[in-house]
Amino acid sequence: MCELLAMSSLEPATLSISLEAFSERGGLSAPHKDGWGAAFYSGRDARRLRETGAASRSSGIRFLREQQYRSNLVLAHVRQATKGAVSLENTQPFARELGGRMHVFAHNGDLIGLEEATGPELGRIRPIGDTDSEHAFCILLARMEPLWAPGESPSLETRLDAITRFAALLRRFGPANFLYSDSEYLYVHGHERTQEASGRIEPPGLYSLCRTCPSKREGRNPRPIEGLTLGLTEARQRVTLVASVPLTAEAWEPVEEGEVLAIKGGRIMARTGAAEPRQERGFQPADA
Q: What pTM did the predictor assign?
């Protein structure tokens, strides 16, 4: 299976240790050697870098470390190919324009039978490559397109409802962990994945880590956030990281099976899903 990494922060930050630890999963400490990619948002657009080789041996990762791109929102992916050639068009994260902003998507898991069952849903939006992950992204965009009519900015509740229904569809076909952003929010869906300890496909499919850092103006030295560089000595920082496996020794929390998170500025703004028994439930504003 592929692996995922995302960051949402209040102040622009540079992924450092976290990105390096994540890249080691691409062919060094894990077998995901068939490509990697990262998207760094800047406003409504995103700077995207992708390669078809192993991330652990990539000069592109060294380039990112040297450039020190600062962003409030980052999505990254390392690939272990199960469907589709090892090629650029099959390398995630995928990106398309919708509603005058760049939408970015990354997924891990095998969605067996999805393309045959949902082909008519695509409409005008078609995959460039031949992976089930990109097909899933095109379905999501087809469902989101009516919400982003010219001059429209859908509410978070409306967006989350569509994304939660989409996530429920994907779970019928296999592991459906994904990261998605419309440049304003980071959306995270946790499901299940092949666990390294047992070899079984089961939850959790993603983990999250939330950290805050007070400013010097509050009379305390900012506590460093492992894996991140803020670069602003006076700013208060709040960060949420999401990854397929914990990348640091900190207390990462599992994303519940079937749960969808909406994150902005490092804060989880709302949650849906993850009901007991496994049924979808309605929109719930988050407490933190």
A: 0.86
